[in-house]
Amino acid sequence: KFVDNPVSHLREKFPEDRLSENGMSLLKSLLLWDPKKRISCDGAMRSEYFREDPRPIDPSMFPTWPAKSEQEPGDKVKKVASPKPPSGGMAFKKMVEDEEDRARGFSLLDSVKNKPPAAGWNLKF
C-alpha cells in the first residue's frame, strides 16, 4: 500500500522562474508512487507544458554536420595530426620484461619461441 505524502518540496528545487505551473504539474504527475495514479506517456505528451512558450523547435531546424562517410575523398577537411609518443623509455620496457621473465620462472614457451617447427608434432600455445 502506498502512503500519501501531501508535502512536496519540488517547488524549492524548481522555482517558478525555471519551471511553470504546467511543468510542475507534469513533473508531479510523472513522479507519483502509485502506478495506477501515475500519468501515462500519451497523457504526458498531451500536457499543456508542451504548448507553452518558448515552444520546442522542429527537429529539421537542428544543426547538422556532414558525416565522414558522405564526404568525397578529395574534400578539404582540416585533419589534426595525432601527437607523437614520448621518446625514450625503451630501457624501462626492457627492465619490465626482464622482471616478468624472472618472476615467471620456467616456461615452455621460451624453448619454442622463434624456432621453425620440427618434424613430428608440436604443442602450440
Question: What this model shows, in words?
Answer:
By secondary structure, the chain is mostly helical. The chain contains 5 helices and no strands. Helices cover 31% and strands 0% of the residues. The model has no long low-confidence stretch (mean pLDDT 76).
Short account of what is shown:
The chain is mostly helical. The protein has 5 helices and no strands.
What key phrases describe this protein's structure?
single chain; 125 residues; mainly alpha; 31% helix
Strand-helix topology:
Layout: H1 10-13, H2 21-30, H3 41-45, H4 90-104, H5 108-112
* Mean pLDDT over the residues: 76
Main sheet: strands, sense, barrel: none
Structural class: mainly alpha
Beta strands, count: 0
Globally, the shape reads elongated
Indicate the low-confidence ranges by residue numbers. none
Oligomer: single chain
Strand content: under 5%
